[in-house]
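Checklist before submission:
- one chain only
- standard amino acids only
- sequence pasted in full

Submission:
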Amino acid sequence: MSSLFTLPKQIPLDSGVIMPGAKLTFTETLTTTPQAVYQDADLATPHTIPVEADANGVFPQIFLDPSLPDYRVKLTTSADVLVYQIDGFPSGIGGSRTITVSSVNPYILLDDTDSGVVNEAKVKISAQGGGEFTILLVSDDEATETAAFRIFRSGTTVTGVSLIGARALTSNPAESESPDLDSFIRRKTSGTSRTNNTVSSDPDLAYTFPTSPGSLYEFTAFLIFQCASTTPGTSFAVSCNGGTSRFAANGSANAATAFADALNFASAGGTASGWTWTNTADHIASVHGQVVAPSAGNILSVAWAQTTTNASALTLAAGSFLHVKRLA
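Returned file contents:
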């Protein structure tokens, strides 16, 4: 949005002198490079520079372009005699302004300078690798940062939210706590298909640990497998690189026969187990387990593949999800 320019200094009128035909010249601050100003808020019609006042010393409306650097404003008489010149006049004053920070892991640091706030008042808003958005609490000397809140995304879709370091969110310390929000959900909005028996992480069902080593997590995975053939079968696990997960899994085919292709197995090391199919109905598995986070940056993921390589693709379908919750 453009901003309406107002004179940075008042014209003395106590002597009754007005300045008919006065002129305003706009350039980039600290330079003589011209910068456009406009007659309308949509920035459709530029003014002729210099902008001239009428016979009563009144200037027309002048709108500044917030996408430009700050302005140098020079006021002269109709005879081009300098009255004053101001550098650093904000191009976005009086209106909204878009600020783009482009770099590796860009951030904005907010420092509350209210007189009543004298300790630990800085907050950093940071965009990190993988599209994560993090709010961090920063010490006064900026030597220490603590992540407080993180948003995970896939494109323009929010895929998870993590409240870091706190066990619950409260609206007021005097009130009871709300349900624990230190959890994360990844879900599949479209299926992923594979035609090999190399067990690997699903591109959607994965969680990157944001906390210090030793934190205990509980996880639940709900998996919907589809295949037009019974030959490939399914192998899957919920595993963590650099750490050990323990889980139990059960499932069956969504078929007319109760508990067709029943699945029951447990793993103490996050290893996959084969699941033999006898029909081509959707096969649904539920996995429940825990893992101790090895270190920040390690990944817990649903890993899967065909048990036997086959051209008939095995698909982990939309609607499958991984829910991870920090316990301690």
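Reviewer check: DSSP finds no helices and 24 strands in the chain.
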